Amino acid sequence: MLDRIPLEAFRVYDAACRFMNFSRAGRELHITQAAVSRRIQGLEEQLGAKLFTRRGRNLALTSEGERLAQRVRATLEYLEESLEPFRGGGFETISIAASGSVSHLWLAKRLKDFDNGNPSVSVRLLTTDAPSELASEANDLVILYSTGEHPRWNLTPLMKEVLVPVASPDFIQRNGLNPALIRPDEIARLDLIDYERFNAHWISFRQWFARLAIPPKARIAPRLSFSTYSLAVDAALRGEGITLGSTGLIADELASATLIELGTHRLDTGYGYHLGTPRYRSLTPGAIRLHQHLLSGI
């Protein structure tokens, strides 16, 4: 059968499986969407099996498609490894994608530590809040805000999302606050720093107060609101007010007491940040080391 199927068809199929999008697969291979579609259709006809189905606007692999995708990816990876001795330099580039807040507050310092111990590996960080870009299988690793499941990524928990009000020691001192005894209704009357909710599952101050057993009666009106979560945290570090801290993302600031938790009310949202590896291809040696490095610190 192989003598009747062009090897190029398997490269096209692999790209289509990684992106779950014929247009993006075509851009990677420098061919048109129509050419990708023709290759996939021809492969299905040669094999006598349906490889993809459509669910609304989204593609999904059939059970036969999943089995073939795993075998094609394993074969292409074997060929890549076989060609390694013929390449010069021995320098590996890997890519990881994460949201702006994760990149700024948690990931950047850990990538620096990894870089110091792995001079032969170059890490490319894609910082984006667009879900489609974060979950693109063009990335080697991803950090996703999730409940722990994704159709194209194997996810390992990095940290739960537990939200608490936090402020700097300077703000606490200026306002004469007792961090351990302050009540939610008192917090609601102080200078609140909020952020825009780009994801329907994100929690800002209004939702946090609303989920308390006894919500404050006062209207929640943040004094400052920033376009990103990391900017809100930076403002709190400067002593400009109180923001919601995700305890995992600001663990270093809590440990160093540059931010201090206010009150005793914590909200576990059921979401969290997860480190993802591709379901349909194996990691390179450098990506495996980075994966292990990021998990070793949790």
TrEMBL record:
Give the family per the record: Belongs to the LysR transcriptional regulatory family.
Domain HTH lysR-type: start-end pairs? 5-62
| UniProt xrefs under InterPro entries | LysR-type_TF_proteobact-type, LysR_HTH_N, LysR_subst-bd, WH-like_DNA-bd_sf, WH_DNA-bd_sf
Listed A to Z, the keywords are:
DNA-binding, Transcription, Transcription regulation
List, alphabetically, the Pfam families matched.
Answer: HTH_1, LysR_substrate
User: What name has this protein been given in UniProt?
Assistant: DNA-binding transcriptional LysR family regulator
Report the record's Gene Ontology biological process terms.
Answer: DNA-templated transcription
Q: Does the keyword Cell cycle apply?
A: no
Its Gene Ontology molecular function terms? DNA-binding transcription factor activity; sequence-specific DNA binding
